[in-house]
UniProtKB/TrEMBL annotation:
Name listed for the protein in its UniProt record: Peptidase
Biased composition (Basic residues): 108-120
Segments for region (Disordered): 100-123
Domain Clp R: 3-185
One Pfam family from the record: Clp_N
InterPro entries assigned: Clp_N_dom_sf (IPR036628), Clp_R_N (IPR004176)
Species for this entry: Streptomyces inusitatus
Keyword check for Ribonucleoprotein: no
Domain of life per record: Bacteria
UniProt entry keywords in alphabetical sequence: Repeat
Amino acid sequence: MMFERFTRDAREVVEGSVEVSRRTGADRVTDEHLLLTMLEQEGTRTAFTLAALGVHDRRASLEAALARAHRRAGLSRSESDALAGLGIDIDSVVARAEENHGPGALHPHPRRPAKRRRRGSFAPAAKETLVRSLRIAAERGDRRIGGEHLLLALTTAPGVVSEVLADHGATYQSVARLLPGGQPG
């Protein structure tokens, strides 16, 4: 199947993301967990690419941006801006919800009691990221799926992770330029 085509570092990202999801108390593995695992790696193409783009140096900023998105119920900045255009102030909604229900009330991944957790399962969006990495590898003419393909897939996924990566200089184009084969395809 697909996992057999993953390189060692890509497997480490997938397996590490399960551990990161457990550490953070999440029920499912998300794109965020894949990214946080990549940020923990050293000596891989992905680690080199993230360092070359300066993302490693701005890890605290990246994590803060992800935390802000959690506080906004997982809405990206562009989604929040779209709601603002309709007259909905997300910050006011969050403040009111937290006032009534406590901090993190709108967190998109609420914790369940331990016995109900399905630890290690992948959220649909994270599964799609894995599939997208396969397509990206094929488009680039690569037989194996590496961590770099997972990173490229994250840059194209809709939502908070790709937005935060782009805000920190990691777009599909900037990542692809740093990888063997050069220009994005």
